[in-house]
Amino acid sequence: MVTEDPRSGMRLDPNRPDDPEYITRLLGQVIRLSLDTLATIRSLPVW
Question: How far is CA 29 from its chain centroid?
């Protein structure tokens, strides 16, 4: 979804025509970070 900030007039476009795999790679990074965070939380001692 392309949006425009009313104050600055900046156009916010998550699509990158120069890198068609950007969204897929970004999604993979988010999933990896979530799994790493879950593993870290599970390794913490129980209080």
Answer: 7
Residue 6, CB half-sphere, CA atoms under 13 Å: how many?
Answer: 0
Whether the full predicted model's pTM is greater than 0.70, yes or no, is no
pLDDT 10s digits, 1-47? 788 889 998 888 777 778 888 889 999 999 999 999 999 999 999 98
Helical segments of 1-47, H only? 22-43
Q: How many helices (H) and strands (E) does the chain have?
A: 1, 2
Cβ 4 vs Cβ 12: under 8 Å: yes
